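Batch job 17 of 40 flagged for manual review because the log was empty.
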Amino acid sequence: MTRVAMRRLLASLMAVVLLATGCGLNNGGSVPLPVAPGPAGTVPELEGVRITVGGKDFTEGVIASYLVEFLLAAAGMEVSDMSSLAGSNSFRQALVTGQVDIGMEYTGTAWMSYLGNSEPIRDPQGQWEAVRDADLAEHDLRWLPPTTVDNTYSFAMNQATAEETGVRTFSDYAELVRTDPQSAVTCMETEFSVRRDGWPGLAEAYGFDAAAVPTPIMQPGIIYQATSVGRECRFGEVYTTDGRVKGLDLVVLEDDQRFFPVYNLATVVRGEVLDAYPQIEDVLAPLVELLTNDVMVEMNMRVDVDGEDPALVARDFLEQEGLVSVD
């Protein structure tokens, strides 16, 4: 059996499992908050058309889902909400099997986790094009143009450590390790410490001795807080768009040799849906220009640090940009 045939068989089996176990994928809820059209009004071809929007159950994934839902609802579509699916694989299988019509996904996740590639493509445009072509050929999934949101790995430090060490890039960090490894104590998750696209690969790419650096292993939430204090963790593994980066006033290192994979956020639509309603791409096109790392960090922070409702955060953003209105 070819690799393509095997993937299709696994997707079909997963669909059966999801249905048999009653995971709730057949009945989406309603859009979490009401929206009205923006100045452009509704799109006649989309009025009353039913569509199911899916997404993942972490803060950024939920916000991304709501952004799509609100824009489509404001355009006149009847939207079912299936954000907050448990884990990336659940969302992916729901999309492949047609239980979800559209959602936002990361290029790096699709390339490595879903499409089975072991090496990332570190050029953002090249990574998106490779995922676009592969998913079109294998699953008839259409990747719309990507945003510049890149939720990838990095290290962060507090302001005092930044000033004391002068470290701003991973090349700076590597030099610090070579000259004074004990001052580069770096906290990380277990998985990151052994992944090829994590700690071992990073050390190889930047030319430093990973074994020389003290590396306490911690849970992600603890890493952010400990890094902000700066005693147990001079540096800490972070995700670049996590709201706690800004909330805790952390300084993120620049990956100046572009070691880490690219995880650009983009909209994915089932082919038959986009063929029937190509206007969807125009409705969602503003997200390509508007969503940046800074914008996403701000929205994530409002949820994870300030405790706000992700639906309200997403709707506020679209209203401020003049894309939807609120009665």
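Reviewer: the log was empty due to a logging misconfiguration, but the result itself is present. The CA atoms of residues 6 and 66 lie 33 Å apart. Unflagging and moving on to job 18.
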